[in-house]
Specification:
The chain has 441 residues and is mostly helical. It has helices at 4-10, 14-20, 24-28, 47-59, 70-80, 90-93, 108-114, 121-132, 138-160, 191-214, 218-222, 225-245, 257-268, 282-293, 295-320, 331-342, 355-412, and strands at 33-35, 40-42, 167-175, 181-189.
Length: 441
């Protein structure tokens, strides 16, 4: 049962037309039969499909049941004069993403809505799909392939540059503490590797800049984890270029220990480019989502390990510190031994020599095995849950994409649907006496 106020509130569809019809004859043109005794209008429609229409009038949203054919649903909307495009429920077509590690892709419907009212929206949407949606088109697949290749080439150049055979001796003048200039010979990567590095940096810069230019929400895009990784991959290069522009040679900063340390850290950050592969690897994205979902379990494990490390390292320190030739000079040194022992790595650089110390080490080993083994089953369960949700999301997006493709295909190619329009042809309503007992209402 629907109240008149509820139907008028939606102001759309056949039921609304019946309410605003000027005469009873007009109303009879829009139904299949009329029961005079009960003043009821009869529509010969499938009950399962009408439930979608009923929910629309109640909630203002259209939900697509998974067990119903999209074509049948569109036929039902066409009959009732409801436009489905603007009323699809978020749970059936778009999921809200809050991360960002945003290893999550939005559906085509969401992307179109984000670019709808922007300047040069169509061009920006196409460029965004090429950069962010590798499966959206052939050009996007080519772009993704090139991006992966440049990442691999950059990482390979960084690794090969550390080989002695691919390094050349470079003579540099360094100012000593007494003011004299000393010539030092250092090994630097081959110039060819440096040129390859510059080419990769140009590609990464174009990729990041293009993404920020066409983004519909630049602030949100900037703070996404994968985009932060992209920025950190090119920042060291531009900092070095900026220093060169201002006439500051990075090698002259050797005398300033703090500044030289910063330069070295920036160079080491180049290895962060390997994380860019996570953008194109569903396995790495799933691993990141699993770690995020298991944050509570990992925090619990870290807290228990920290408690065990402090407990056992303190014990072994006081048991071993007075022994001749002991290596347990402090509790922090004992903490290093305890971490190595509890994680079952066992470097052997620090070992207790007394019997009580060895008993403490035995307890640390047993405790470490238990502490590390117990959360594994929980984390594995979380991984299965995350994987299942990911598959469900993919099926939901595929289902809605198919639904919209059917709608767009029928409206553009062949069967021209006219959603939301009143029927122009007159129906032949059946009078009461023509409704037999076999008719299902």
């Amino acid at each position: 049962m629907l109240r008149k106020d509820t139907i008028i509130l939606r102001d759309q569809g056949r039921l609304s037309w019946i309410l605003i019809a000027a005469s009873q004859e007009d109303r009879l043109q829009m139904c299949d039969a009329y029961f005079e005794s009960t003043c009821e209008y009869y529509f010969e429609r499938p009950p399962a499909l009408f439930h979608i229409v009923y929910s629309f009038y109640l909630t203002g949203q259209i939900h697509q049941p998974s067990h119903l054919c999209p074509t049948d649903i569109l036929d039902e909307f066409d009959y009732w004069g409801i436009v489905p495009d603007t009323h699809l429920a978020a749970c059936c077509c778009i999921e809200n993403h809050v991360d960002d590690i945003s290893m999550s892709s939005a559906s085509s419907i969401e992307i179109e809505n984000e670019f709808k009212d922007l300047f040069a929206s169509e061009i920006r949407r196409k460029v965004w799909n090429v950069i962010e949606e590798p499966t959206s088109s052939c050009s996007a697949q080519v772009f993704a392939f090139l991006s992966v290749m440049f990442v691999l080439i950059s990482i390979s150049g960084l690794v090969l540059g550390s080989l002695h055979d691919l390094q050349l001796p470079m003579i540099k003048n360094v100012t000593a503490a007494n003011g004299s200039i000393i010539e030092l010979t250092e090994m630097e990567p081959h110039p060819l590797l440096t040129q390859i590095e510059y080419v990769c940096i140009v590609w990464f810069s174009i990729e990041y800049t293009s993404k920020m230019i066409v983004s519909p929400a630049r602030k949100k895009t900037f703070f996404q984890l994968l985009n932060i990784i992209d920025l950190m991959a090119i920042v060291p290069f531009f900092i070095e270029i900026s220093l060169m522009i201002f006439g500051i040679d990075t090698e002259s900063l050797r005398d300033l220990k703090g500044a030289f340390l910063v330069i070295r850290i920036l160079r080491v950050l180049r290895v962060i480019r390997v994380l860019k592969l996570g953008r194109y690897s569903s396995g790495l994205q799933m691993f990141g989502k699993t770690l995020k979902a298991s944050f509570r379990q990992l925090g619990m494990m870290a807290m228990v390990v920290l408690t065990g490390v402090i407990f056992f390292s303190t014990l072994v320190y006081f048991l071993e510190k007075d022994e001749p030739g002991t290596q347990f000079h402090s509790i922090p040194a004992a903490c290093w031994w305890c971490i190595v022992t509890m994680t079952t790595v066992g470097y052997g650089d620090l070992t207790p020599t007394t019997v009580p110390g060895k008993l403490v080490a035995t307890g640390a080993i047993a405790c470490g095995v238990l502490v590390l083994a117990l959360p594994i089953t929980i984390i594995a369960q979380v991984a299965f849950t995350v994987s299942g949700k990911h598959r469900q999301k993919q099926r939901r997006h595929l289902k809605v994409d198919n639904f919209m493709k059917v709608a767009e295909g029928e409206r553009e190619g062949g069967v021209a649907r006219r959603f939301g329009r009143r029927p122009s042809v007159a129906y032949n309503p059946r009078p009461l006496q023509s409704v037999t007992q076999d008719t299902i209402c």
